[in-house]
Design brief:
The structure is a single chain. The chain is mainly beta. Helices cover 0% and strands 54% of the residues. The chain contains no helices and eleven strands. The strands form two sheets. Strands 2, 4, 5, 6, 9, 10 and 11 form a seven-stranded mixed beta sheet that branches. A four-stranded antiparallel beta sheet has the order 1-3-8-7, with no helix packed on it. Strand 4 and strand 5 form a beta hairpin. The relative contact order is 0.32.
Length: 115
């Protein structure tokens, strides 16, 4: 089982990034997919969720209207489009796959928002 995130980097405030998470080794379409983030000195925070099946989405209030989660089951990939980035979005972003009591994590990708 593997989840590999990519797309992080340094961006100026107001800029955009698109994170990707490529999955392998499990039935991707059956799993709810989530993006978490963890800033230095803070607890890991759930940012966005997209369900299996209908692909319903939900977001933490601080990113609503700026971030969009999506998935491509054929490519076994989940995305996080991040627009209007703010310095407080700086964190390591992690991809998570979850189905009932089982779950998998990626290694994380750093996002730094700074001028």
């Amino acid at each position: 089982v593997k989840l590999v995130e990519s797309g992080g980097g340094l961006v100026q405030p107001g800029g955009s990034l698109r994170l990707s998470c490529a999955a392998s080794g499990f039935t991707f379409s059956a799993y709810h997919m989530k993006w978490y983030r963890q800033a230095p000195g803070k607890e890991r925070e759930l940012v966005a969720v997209i369900t299996s099946g209908a692909g319903s989405t939900n977001y933490v209030d601080s990113v609503k209207g700026r971030f969009t989660i999506s998935r491509d089951n054929a490519r076994k990939t989940v995305y996080l489009q991040m627009n209007s980035l703010k310095p407080e979005d700086t964190a390591v972003y992690y991809c998570n796959a979850q189905l009932y009591g089982s779950g998998y994590w990626g290694q994380g990708t750093q996002v730094t928002v700074s001028s």
